[in-house]
Specification:
alpha+beta; 6 helices; 13% strand
Length: 205
């Protein structure tokens, strides 16, 4: 838990652009996240996911499951479970990190990997008929946008505004989570021997 708390305190400046995560209030091993895809075949997608941290972390890799229905070679069509490239998520020291895993999660939407596949049908379609594959991907993107904006029925906000709002919510939740853990003595607010980080910048959309 101590390692996860340290990683939590560093998230605001280390998260991959377009990715926002926070642990559950009552379970530090369960992290909820959302990914905004800006380019590539999945451009415009708003994808919610759950990351589960194993008991032997950082030596075992966290598991990631998408809560948004997604047509992707590396995502199980029924469970949403991501077949993560664990070798890429691991650091040279042989350990995993929350940020390292999230970078791999983001990368699957920019660099398609067809083998091994969690969804063999998607992988085969990508190889044999890219036009049809892209059409199925666009359906996933549309579905993700509908789901993301369904919680705002009175507002016709754009995805750009939604991401800005998500960033604001993330910053506030992260601040509250850090303050809560600092007040409980679970998190040390300052770490010696390190330069203070600059305030995170609003993502370029």
């Amino acid at each position: 838990d101590a390692l996860l708390l340290v990683e939590l305190s560093q998230l605001a400046v280390q998260l991959p652009r377009g990715v926002y995560v926070l642990p559950s209030a009552d379970n530090l091993a369960e992290w909820h996240g959302v990914l905004f895809v800006r380019n590539g075949a999945y451009r415009g997608a708003v994808l919610h996911f759950l990351m589960s941290v194993p008991a032997k972390y950082p030596y075992d890799c966290p598991a990631v499951a998408f809560r948004t229905s997604l047509f992707h070679p590396q995502v199980d069509i029924k469970s949403g479970q991501l077949l993560l490239a664990e070798d890429q998520a691991k650091s040279p020291s042989g350990r995993y990190s929350i940020v390292g895993v999230l970078k791999c999660v983001k990368e699957i939407f920019y660099k398609l990997r067809l083998q091994p596949a969690a969804n063999p049908s998607a992988a085969e379609l990508c190889r044999s008929d890219r036009e049809q594959f892209d059409a199925r991907v666009k359906e996933s993107v549309r579905d993700s946008v509908v789901r993301a904006t369904s919680s705002h029925p009175s507002s016709l906000i754009s995805i750009q505004n939604e991401e800005t709002a998500e960033l604001q919510r993330f910053r506030e939740q992260l601040r509250q989570a850090s303050l809560q853990r600092i007040s409980s003595g679970a998190l040390t607010p300052k770490r010696k021997g390190r330069e203070p980080h600059a305030a995170p910048q609003t993502p370029e959309l």
